[in-house]
Specification:
mainly alpha, 434 Repressor (Amino-terminal Domain), about 0% strand, 6 helices
């Protein structure tokens, strides 16, 4: 998979998305002119953890968040954690299709 900045993450599998996030961590580390060792020390993780994250997209959530904090990029999570927009009653009533209550299987 080519590494472009404009990859549409909505089209990626979970494995591809993890790999893309690892590549983005690497690009940001290099943009900040940091070695893997420096980033690992600042994040409180091992250098091998950073290398695995960058190459395979493999990391635990706490390690990934520690690396984001060390890169000063935790603010990028703000949109992810915001609640969905509130729907007006008029829009709710105007919906033409009923919402599914359960899956077929």
């Amino acid at each position: 998979m080519s590494r472009r900045l404009d990859v549409d993450v909505m089209l990626l599998s979970a494995y591809e998305l993890a790999s893309e996030l690892g590549a983005r961590v690497r690009r940001e580390r290099l943009r900040q002119n940091m070695t893997q060792r420096t980033l690992a020390d600042r994040a409180g993780v091992g250098r091998a953890t950073v290398a695995r994250m960058e190459q395979a997209g493999s990391a635990t959530l706490p390690n990934f968040l520690a690396v984001l904090a060390a890169l000063h990029r935790t603010g990028d999570l703000q949109q992810l954690l915001e609640p969905p927009p509130v729907e007006t009653i008029d829009r709710f009533v105007a919906r033409s299709e009923p919402q599914r209550q359960r899956g077929r299987r």
